[in-house]
TrEMBL record:
Residues in DUF5117 domain copies: 111-314
Keywords of the record: Hydrolase, Metalloprotease, Protease, Signal
Pfam families: DUF4953, DUF5117, DUF5118
Protein name listed in UniProt: Zinc-dependent metalloprotease
Stretches assigned to the EcxA zinc-binding domain: 472-791
Source organism per UniProt: Chitinimonas lacunae
Leader peptide range in chain numbering: 1-23
Residue ranges constituting the DUF5118 domain according to the UniProt record: 55-95
GO molecular function: metallopeptidase activity
């Protein structure tokens, strides 16, 4: 899934954010200029003198065991001290924490990367402060601007502890109390728990402890078992009438009043700043952003740097050279053995891109042994590991970055086992309930769709007889998905963002060609969210998933990692960027995909004609429905299999429909700079919008769009062992409600203020003499498709009546409750449609032989429209 680089501020809530991403897949951490020193508050002496009341160093650590590291660790049973050499006070180091133990639901998972900081230890009297230095705002050292920056921006205190010893007589080092420093809620786990469950969990230092510790020359690592508790359980409460989130008890704990989380803290050496590379928006990399106040000559003080590993040739003069220090990915010992080869292949696939720029074996894979004495959560140890939970279904590729230069210092890919588990269907069904009121929605969108995609594909292939459950073919299919997902997540940890335009670079003919798809993939990049490349029945079948890197991936790696001497860098990067108009290098990221206006930038579409993909997916879903009609279950098999397959296909309809909707009022958004020969903004042609609207109304609003036989509906029951209690699945499948949910989403989008505004505005962007798609076309076409029965005086069944009520609700809202953003033309056209519909209904009511239900529905709708047309409107927001 999506990737994020943790911001120092937001990362403190990483316990809740599992993501990126949304989000959401997430955003990169801000950074400072490579040449900047560690930012700090105005210089304050560290008060290094010893007080006579402190014990001698040797007395404190008597009978303790020493582990040598960046900060040597001393331990005697449960008591732990850190030794701080005198020359390392006030000196920057790399401080990170990761969660190695969770509770298994609502984002509180184990194996998740936390935050990282450029930090230092600062002595104030007999206390040592752990300071996180603000690296975002900088100026050239020694200048007046540097003083202004120091006065204008603050560092942050992460924690503090006591000095417990006098200085060592030879080493001049001091001892600090590690228990006091780390048995505190530095990761803000209590906040994450409260956001997840709306319950006031508190960190409990008395029942928390330091577990395993490890140190070597560059790192000191300590694991903490952190206890959180509730003083009392809340009283049961009903649903809030305001819709505000309500408290919910964790469902996975023996006693919801008490839980343990595990954190892995690393104190690691900070490397000397490497040369930074300036980012460009035509190719997608995660970036580190700094504000450089050194001069006022720049139009804006922000500078954006590519996030990338420090990767150099052993022999800079050779055309192809081994990497001086390769990027090593450790495979955690918790990865299932049967998938380790697929994971390994997914990682090593990236070596092809590095070899093209002259670096051989840039990426190396190592397997953590079962008896290894290190944890893959340690800083400077890139890793891949599995994690589990009752409501998980995503993979994530976060990284820790040196904010001074954008250098990636660590990355920990998390892969949930839902992608490989036969019960992944349970995740798809449970997620909407499990995530209610949780801020995971932004990035779990991909998790839901990815799990649903694999579920639907295997159901379809099984129904056709192309793959048998639990067969070697099914195992290979799942292994290929694992490799595809790992390639995607490794790409994130190499610094690459999503590319949601990459799925449109190949034609349907190319996607149907087995040889082509095996050699070139099914999309231009592994950084897209590509659906399974499923052929219609009778068509040639290409590869199901990405088999290799796409051309965009090679290009993005070249820009970030190609070895270039400083004096040639600007010219060489310009040559690389000059290829940005190559169709196979097409790029768009989260901004275009989730803003919802560019039909070529979507999640889960495939092929050079996304409208064609939309139509094909609807046809595939209907094929599965037809196969379910005749499917004979084995004796003893649960009927829930039929219901699960149908609901999976309905999710496909909803997902594919979102692709078609982008064409209405859509605009192609390119990231071109001047001189490319293309315009950055191009409204979707009127004829293409009409084609999209015809497909949407024909596939979703026709009277027989969702017709299933009574026999199939009577056989679709829930799994009664999986769904019981307050969250149980209804015994009967309510087809009308589920279909209306899809149709309501379409109408909400098509009657949206932003869509109306774009359609109206696009008339200004059409060349003189050209034809623009009109808002009246949209509203008239929708009404004619939805009210076919009223126009002909015919009967409307329950499903049609539900859809018609929903369309009238849209009209009434536009007329009587427009928002401050509703265009006046939209309100006027809604009123015109209401008058037209009233005439149809009046005529229909004069027809004989209507059922009582249909007649009542027509009469009620007519009365509602008449009242709305008479009512004065109130514009919200004014």
């Amino acid at each position: 899934m999506s990737r994020f680089t943790l911001r120092p501020c937001a990362a403190l809530l990483f316990g809740l954010l599992a993501l990126n991403a949304f989000a959401g897949e997430g955003k990169p951490a801000p950074a400072a200029v490579a040449t900047a020193p560690v930012a700090s508050m105005p210089n304050v002496p560290s008060a290094a003198r010893d007080n006579s009341n402190l014990k001698p160093f040797s007395e404190v650590i008597r009978d303790a065991q020493r582990q040598n590291g960046l900060f040597p660790i001393w331990r005697q049973n449960d008591k732990v001290w850190l030794e701080i050499p005198a020359d390392r006070l006030d000196q920057p180091f790399f401080f990170t924490f990761n969660r190695v133990r969770g509770i298994g639901e609502r984002g509180i998972y184990g194996g998740q990367m936390g935050a990282s900081y450029v930090a230092s230890f600062k002595r104030i009297g007999d206390r040592i402060q752990l300071i996180a230095h603000n690296q975002t705002y900088t100026a050239k050292p020694g200048t007046p601007a540097a003083h202004a920056v120091a006065e204008g921006f603050s560092d942050s205190l992460l924690g503090s502890t006591t000095v417990v010893s006098q200085a060592h007589p030879e080493r001049k080092a001091i001892l600090i109390d590690a228990n006091q420093l780390l048995l505190a809620d530095i990761p803000m786990g209590a906040t994450a728990l409260e956001m997840a469950f709306r319950l006031p969990y508190s960190f409990d230092p008395r029942q928390s402890s330091i577990g395993k510790t490890r140190a070597d020359g560059d790192i000191s690592a300590l694991q903490v078992t952190a206890h959180y508790n509730l003083m009392k359980l809340p009283l049961p409460s009903g649903v809030s009438s305001s819709g505000s989130p309500q408290a919910v008890l964790p469902s996975v704990l023996e006693d919801p009043r008490s839980l343990f989380l595990g954190y892995h803290y690393s104190f690691a050496r900070l490397p000397e700043p490497m040369a930074a590379r300036v980012a460009d928006d035509r190719v997608g990399h995660f970036i580190s952003t700094r504000w450089d106040y050194s001069d006022d000559l720049s139009f804006k003080p922000r500078v954006h740097l590519v996030n990338r590993w420090r990767l150099e040739k052993k022999d800079p003069t050779a055309a192809l050279s081994e990497a001086k220090q390769p990027i090593v990915y450790w495979l955690d010992k918790n990865i299932p053995v049967k998938y380790r080869q697929s994971v390994r292949e997914g990682v090593l696939a990236w070596n092809q891109a590095f070899e093209k720029i002259g670096i051989k074996n840039a990426v190396v894979v190592k397997q953590q042994e079962d008896d290894a004495d290190f944890d893959t959560a340690e800083a400077h140890r890139a890793s891949i590991r599995w994690f589990v939970g009752t409501d998980v279904g995503f993979a994530i590729g976060p990284s820790h970055v040196d904010p001074r230069t954008g250098e990636i210092l660590d990355a920990d890919i998390g892969m949930s086992d839902v992608f490989t588990r036969g019960s992944r269907r349970q995740f798809v069904d449970d997620l909407p309930r499990a995530m209610t009121g949780n801020r995971h929605d932004a990035y779990c969108q991909y998790a839901h769709l990815a799990a649903s995609e694999m579920h639907f594909s295997l159901d379809m292939l099984e129904a056709r007889g192309d793959i048998r459950p639990d067969s070697p073919e099914a195992e290979k299919f799942v292994s290929d998905v694992v490799r595809d997902v790992i390639m995607h997540e490794v790409g994130h940890t190499l610094g690459l963002r999503h590319n949601f335009r990459a799925s449109t670079v190949y034609t349907p003919a190319q996607l149907a060609n087995t040889h082509f798809t095996h050699n070139h993939g099914v999309a231009g990049s592994v950084m897209d969210y590509s659906p399974t490349n499923l052929a219609l029945k009778g068509e040639s079948q290409g590869a199901y998933n990405m088999q290799t890197l796409g051309p965009y991936d090679y290009w993005a790696i070249e820009y970030a990692y190609k070895p270039i001497t400083p004096e040639k860098e600007e010219a060489e990067l310009a040559k690389i960027l000059a290829r940005s108009t190559d169709p196979v290098l097409a790029f768009a990221s989260d901004e275009e995909a989730y803003e919802g206006a560019d039909p070529e930038a979507s999640v889960f579409d495939l092929g050079s004609d996304p409208l064609n993909y939309f139509e094909r997916r609807i046809r595939l879903s209907r094929e599965l429905w037809q196969r379910l009609e005749s499917r004979q279950l084995a004796p003893g098999q649960s009927y829930a299999a039929l219901r699960n397959s149908f609901e999976s296909s309905l999710r496909q309809v909803r997902s594919a429909t979102s692709v078609g909707l982008k064409y209405i009022g859509g605009v192609r958004q390119l990231r071109d700079h001047a001189g490319s020969g293309r315009l950055p903004l191009t409204p979707v042609p009127a004829d293409t919008q009409r084609r999209a609207l015809k497909l949407l109304t024909g596939q979703l609003f026709a009277p027989d769009s969702f017709r299933l036989s009574p026999d199939l509906l009577r056989r679709m029951t829930p799994d009664r062992l999986e769904y019981f209690g307050p969250a149980r699945q209804p015994t009967e499948l309510n087809l009308n409600d589920q279909v209306l949910g899809v149709q309501r989403g379409v109408l909400d989008r098509l009657y949206n203020d932003q869509v109306a505004t774009r359609i109206l505005e696009h008339s200004n962007k059409v060349e003189r003499g050209g034809q623009a798609f009109r808002l009246s076309e949209l509203y008239d076409t929708l009404q004619a498709a939805i009210w076919q029965e009223a126009r002909s005086g015919g009967e409307a069944d329950l499903g049609r009546r539900n859809l018609q009520r929903e369309q009238v609700r849209q009209l009434v809202n536009l007329m009587t409750r427009p928002s401050s953003q509703t265009p006046a033309d939209a309100r006027a056209l809604a009123r015109d449609n209401a008058r037209e519909l009233s005439g149809w209904l009046q005529t229909a009511l004069n027809k004989p032989r209507l059922s009582k239900e249909t007649r009542a529905h027509y009469a009620d709708t007519l009365a509602m429209l008449n009242e709305a047309m008479k009512a004065s409107y109130t514009r919200s927001g004014t």
